[in-house]
Amino acid sequence: MTELPDGWREEALGDLAHGGLFVDGDWVETKDQDPTGGVRLTQLADVGVAGFRDRSDRWMRADQAAALNCTYLQPGDILVARMPEPLGRACLVPTGLGTAVTAVDVAVIRVARADVDPRYVMWALNGPSAREHMVQLQSGTTRKRISRKNLATVKLPMPPLNEQRRIVEILEDHLSRLDAAERLLANCQQRRESWQRVTLDGLVRETASGTTRLGALVERVEAGRSLGGSAPPAGPDDWGIIKVSAMTWGEFRPHENKRIPADKADPRHEIRPGDVLVSRANTTEYVGAPVYVEDTPQRLLLSDKSLRLVPKAGIDSRWLASVLAARSTRAQVSGLATGTKDSMRNISQQSLLSVTVPEATPDQQTRVVQRAREVEDSARKLRNEIERAELRGRALHRALLGAAFSGQLT
Q1: What is the spatial distance between Cα 332 and Cα 354, in angstroms, rounded to a whole number?
Q2: Model-level pTM?
């Protein structure tokens, strides 16, 4: 850690909870989804970076919690994720959460010292210095995590109480502005996607000579396999399998993949330039999202969540991808998708091939492809500008946190 300003001290996280509480989450296994059970089980998914995300739907009965001697959460407790991603993210337990406990891999810190503001500790844990320290202390082979013992040794820079509060006030004011900018950029991205879909829809409709089922345009549909597990991206000489995110953003992103053993690779599922791919499983908004493969590295395979549509003779692959991306087609696909959660909807091959799409002659297809390329180029430039602004925002976010906990924000 860098040299601290006068009056600051360095303290271990475990010492900050002196007189309070520092425990692991509880080893709770329950499939009870009935909120009348009375006790909410908060999990890793609930722990965001400086914000409780409220994503859990797990509950347990009060007698179960009592039998397991679970630790009940209180508003203002600090929850710390002991597993990625990202490791060490921390948030405060919000008021109004109700009776709740935490699952294992979520540490609970209850600060009881009069000279420590829990909000400051929460923000410091989300700072770059504490994050880097936690990464160094994590262990494990398949699923890395930081132990409670090691987490307790993480050092934080601690100014006097009045300075802690001033830092929190300044930091939250600046970050609220960054959050507003982030929301604005997200809205711009949504508007860009909507403009692209509406424009494509108009192009396709204007040049159509009738309508038909998608199945009448497709020779066959090819699906990949599930190879399970998580792994880093494939290297130049590795076999890889694409993730859903490779098909989500309107263009093929081959780097969104995971490495697989060579003996599990099936060359029949290898992706090739000119392919039209569709996301078979995704969120409600992106299920059925198509991409045209301009280029791709070798040894990259379809996954079980991706479909390759092989068009019939006389059907241009780029035109087919444009038809699938049009708003009218996307609306049908979303309506036919099944699944109980919006976060993961599925479209069957049969349902996908049943959607109504425009017909077009080869000449009409060519005109659409030419115009669609112009639209895609404009959309790509706009998206790149938005993404650059988002990267600058994230860099500024990290810089603010770094400045806050080195005495440069008071």
Answers
A1: 9
A2: 0.70
